[in-house]
Amino acid sequence: MQKEKQWEGYYSNYFNKASEKGINALEILNSEWYDGKKTAEESVLPYLKADDVILEIACGIGRVSKYVAPFCKHLFCSDIIDEALTEAKINLKDFNNVSFQKINGYDLRVFDDNYFDLVYSFTTFFHFDFELVLKYFEEIKRVLKPAGIAIIEFKRWQDKKDVTELLEKIEAQGGIVTYEKELDKWRYVSKEILKVICDYYDFQILDDNVTSFTFRKSDNI
Ligand SMILES: C[S@@+](CC[C@H](N)C(=O)[O-])C[C@H]1O[C@@H](n2cnc3c(N)ncnc32)[C@H](O)[C@@H]1O
User: Fold this and answer.
1) Is the beta carbon of 123 within 6 A of some atom in ligand 1?
2) 87 in ligand 1 pocket by Cβ < 6 Å?
3) What is the residue with the minimal CA distance to atom 14 of ligand 1?
4) What does the alpha-carbon distance between residue 175 and residue 110 come to, in Å, rounded to a whole number?
């Protein structure tokens, strides 16, 4: 099935909750997921330069984009579903250095080689099967400039606490039968697995915290 079809309607629940409360859906995501401003400040801004051209993979409705846009030359927000891009455009309407691009969910073919100084993605790659992560890393390597940086959020798989958290999530979503059919599944990685992929693609790891995994493309490519 096309990725777009799988994810269509993903934000309806958040839009409904927001309209019941008379607030912007971003406020719901900031409290239920994680504050977008904090994500930008903690994970992206430390690596950002004012003249950087940036790509956000899976921008959603702009939770993090809003707090990155003021600090770069140009931000390309990409996602696979129209409902996300439409809402992101509204939420980022005050910025004239932001563009929006629909992508197919498998690759970044709409973007040129060696184009971006930085690529980032939050709350998304841990929903992907491992094969898709591998292919996205290949594409990230292609679109990054030499020495360009990528920051990707994964779920850590580290200790008993993570097992407990996952078991609770499965129950909260109605048990394993329902959970298995849902989009909102978590996939886990370890530092070791990510290191193997980075070695393969010749990426230098800058931060091996898997929840804000940061790596740099080699500068001699
Ligand atoms: C949980 S939301 C996160 C949105 C945003 N990154 C944030 O943190 O607020 C996941 C987003 O990933 C997008 N998405 C799902 N599969 C994708 C894929 N294969 N490639 C790119 N984006 C995808 C969805 O449309 C959705 O907007």
Assistant:
1) yes
2) no
3) 58
4) 39
Round to whole Å and give the CA distance between 204 and 212: 15
By alpha-carbon position, which residue is closest to atom 22 of ligand 1? 58
Domains of the chain: 3-156+186-217 (3.40.50.150)
- 67-102 residue pLDDT tens: 999 999 999 999 999 999 999 999 999 999 999 999
pLDDT tens readout for residues 25-68: 999 999 999 999 999 999 999 999 999 999 999 999 999 999 99
Q: Is residue 62 within 6 Å of ligand 1 at its C-beta?
A: no
d(CA 149, CA 2): 29
In whole angstroms, what is the distance from residue 7 CA to residue 67 CA?
24
